[in-house]
Amino acid sequence: MGPRSDILSRFYAAHDFGVRQSTDQGLTNCLKNLLSLPDQRPIYIIIDALDECPDTSGIPSPPEEVLRLVTELVELRLPDLHICITSRPQVDIRVTLGRLTSLQACLHNQSGQRNDIVDYVTSVVYSDSEQIMRGRGKEEKEPRR
Fold first, then answer.
1. CA separation (Å) from 46 to 43, 87, 115, 119, 133?
2. Which residue did the predictor score with more confidence, 111 or 39?
3. What is the CA angle 113-88-98, rounded to 5?
4. DSSP label at 113?
5. Is the pLDDT of residue 8 over 90?
6. How far is CA 52 from CA 59, 65, 119, 130, in A?
7. Cα-atom radius of gyration of the chain, to the nearest Å?
8. Burial class (CB in 10 A: 0-12, 13-18, 19+), 63
9. Mind listing the pLDDT tens digit for each residue in 44-70?
10. Which one, of 67, 73, 75, lies nearest residue 96 by Cα?
């Protein structure tokens, strides 16, 4: 067994082999241990649509928890760890992420992006409506039982 397997096996055993659920901090620590192993290959973590985390009344909210995790991972300063986050430009998300990196790409107002979305939605709607119309024609031709 390698060091990654050892970390996961110890974590699994510490939680009664899956009987007990880990805390969020326990999972975070396990992830940090895995990411901090020497001789890493590049690791990519992609978080898509951060702004779409369900916003519950809990404190902290799910988006805040994810931002806290991202902050902890960035603060590890691991050279082979790459994090990509997509989100609408909400103030809390923009402020937190702005402190963590200088590399940002705003596609929110790009006409090319809007055109791609319009083209995609149009093709899906056209495709779906065409299939629905074909299905109706088939139903009308088949005798009812």
1. 10, 11, 24, 25, 39
2. 39
3. 115
4. H
5. yes
6. 17, 13, 23, 31
7. 23
8. buried
9. 999 999 988 876 666 677 888 999 999
10. 67
